From TrEMBL:
<comment type="similarity">
    <text>Belongs to the glycosyl hydrolase 47 family.</text>
</comment>
<feature type="disulfide bond">
    <location>
        <begin position="252"/>
        <end position="284"/>
    </location>
</feature>
<dbReference type="GO" id="GO:0004571">
    <property type="term" value="F:mannosyl-oligosaccharide 1,2-alpha-mannosidase activity"/>
</dbReference>
<dbReference type="InterPro" id="IPR036026">
    <property type="entry name" value="Seven-hairpin_glycosidases"/>
</dbReference>
<protein>
    <recommendedName>
        <fullName>alpha-1,2-Mannosidase</fullName>
        <ecNumber>3.2.1.-</ecNumber>
    </recommendedName>
</protein>
<keyword id="KW-0333">Golgi apparatus</keyword>
<feature type="binding site">
    <location>
        <position position="409"/>
    </location>
    <ligand>
        <name>Ca(2+)</name>
    </ligand>
</feature>
<feature type="active site" description="Proton donor">
    <location>
        <position position="298"/>
    </location>
</feature>
<comment type="pathway">
    <text>Protein modification; protein glycosylation.</text>
</comment>
<feature type="active site" description="Proton donor">
    <location>
        <position position="55"/>
    </location>
</feature>
<keyword id="KW-1133">Transmembrane helix</keyword>
<keyword id="KW-0735">Signal-anchor</keyword>
<keyword id="KW-0479">Metal-binding</keyword>
<dbReference type="InterPro" id="IPR012341">
    <property type="entry name" value="6hp_glycosidase-like_sf"/>
</dbReference>
<keyword id="KW-0325">Glycoprotein</keyword>
<dbReference type="GO" id="GO:0005509">
    <property type="term" value="F:calcium ion binding"/>
</dbReference>
<dbReference type="Pfam" id="PF01532">
    <property type="entry name" value="Glyco_hydro_47"/>
</dbReference>
């Protein structure tokens, strides 16, 4: 077992913890017991490296919380809370907006060097803590976790937003935006996701999250959503008013998110959001269908007559990302249109053909080449997300029902807090 990941601060077993709930769900009982034994005996928290607050939260805390909720095994609850406590120094900033990196040894924090020369926190990072931190408070009785994320919400609620949009970089010192770049892909993505999911996880009591989500979505639609000459709907990136007609693979989760949120929109917008979700998901499928491997590139453009294809080899790779099949799963649950299972099956076949290796699955360097070009890495989110969403796509709707569970941005299911409103428990799958 190696630590391997630079973002993990010396924690080992990222793949084990990220895949616990997938193993459990798929009834791989022996493998699950082996993984649980590893968590009990070998998952040590007394490490001293520098960790990413965001990655440790979504993969480790999310993975442990889901494993606890699915099984009731105390070891997962206890380790999730202890690890959560180790993340708290990231919030020691003048605004309470956490910095991206926490030093497990010294308890100091810093921003990523690449984030506006180390001056900024990233929207998708500090905006994707809410679900897990509320559960940490619920399971520990310690209010500190909930207080931290409520403060983040307050800062974001009160700050001026250009055209109602949320830029990607914010100073944790001054609380001001550091530039005006907006993305529903990398750097922005899961912030929007956590707004609608906070609303759903609160059993539809967190009105603030609801309002912020629909307001943000309206601004995105007004300023970022476009239709290509060939009729493909996409979400562009916004740089202070200028658009990059580009969509990242990461942004393809938004079809699923918009579908998930459609039901609680104003009545006159519901059908519209369902259609928008279907169109975006169709575009993301096109990015797969237009490649030689039938897997999609990291980013695709809508420029000079070329649509839904990467325009540079540096953006032609596929690293086993989940976002496209994630949207198929949500659209399937919403519509039961068999096209989503067909598209999901195309992805399964392509993964088998181009990504399966002797030791597992690997990313590929060029989706436009049929010659094997493995990158020799199996990202942890392949087991946490890609395989889980595919499995759910071909399962009955009551397997982790969307009424009772929300998925964190790493696809770890967390129970809806029904006790707030109706007295129903979170339930087991
Ligand atoms: C995952 O770690 C999470 O989904 C995150 O929000 C962004 N993307 C990767 C997988 O692509």
């Amino acid at each position: 077992m190696r630590s391997g990941y630079t973002w993990a601060g010396g924690l080992s077993g990222a793949t084990v913890i990220d895949s616990l709930d997938t193993l459990y769900l798929m009834e791989l009982k022996e493998e699950f017991q082996e993984a649980k034994a590893w968590v009990e005996e070998s998952f040590h928290l007394n490490v001293s490296g520098e960790a990413s607050l965001f990655e440790v939260n979504i993969r480790y805390i999310g993975g442990l919380l889901s494993a606890f909720y699915l099984t009731g095994d105390e070891v997962f609850r206890i380790k999730a809370i202890k690890l959560g406590e180790k993340l708290l120094p990231a919030f020691d900033t003048p605004t309470g907006i956490p910095k991206g990196v926490v030093n497990f040894k010294s308890g100091s924090n810093r921003s990523w060097g690449w984030a506006m020369a180390g001056s900024s926190s990233i929207l998708a990072e500090f905006g994707s803590l809410h679900l897990e931190f509320l559960h940490l408070t619920q399971l520990s009785g310690n209010q500190v976790f909930a207080e931290k994320v409520r403060n983040i919400r307050k800062v974001l609620r009160e700050i001026d937003k250009p055209f109602g949009l949320y830029p990607n970089f914010l100073s944790p010192v001054s609380g001001n935006w550091m530039q005006h770049h907006v993305s529903v892909g990398g750097l922005g993505d899961s912030f929007y996701e956590y707004l609608i999911k906070s609303w759903l996880m609160s059993a539809k009591t967190d009105m603030e999250a609801k309002d912020m989500y629909y307001e943000a979505l309206e601004a995105i639609e007004t300023h970022l959503v476009n239709v290509s000459p060939g009729g493909l709907t996409y979400i562009a990136e916004w740089r202070g008013g200028i658009l990059d007609h580009k969509m990242g693979h990461l942004a393809c989760f938004s079809g699923g998110m918009i579908a998930l949120g459609a039901e609680d929109a104003k009545e006159e917008k519901r059908a519209h959001y369902r259609e928008l979700a279907a169109q975006i998901t169709k575009t993301c499928h096109e990015s797969y269908a237009r490649s030689d491997t039938k897997l999609g590139p990291e980013a695709f453009w809508f420029n000079s007559g070329r649509e839904a294809v990467a325009t540079q080899t540096s953006e032609s790779y596929y690293i086993l990302r989940p976002e496209v099949v994630e949207s198929y799963m949500y659209l399937w649950r919403q519509t039961h249109d068999p096209i989503y299972r067909e598209w999901g099956w195309e992805a399964v076949m392509a993964l088998e053909k181009y990504c399966r290796t002797e030791a597992g699955f690997s990313g590929i360097q060029d989706v436009y080449s049929k010659v094997p070009n493995h990158d020799n890495r199996q990202q942890t989110f392949f087991l946490a997300e890609t395989l889980k969403y595919l499995y759910l796509l071909f399962s009955e709707d009551d397997m982790l029902s969307l009424e009772d569970w929300v998925f964190n941005t790493e696809a770890h299911p967390l129970p809806v807090n029904h006790s707030d409103s109706s007295g129903r428990g979170g339930g087991r799958p």
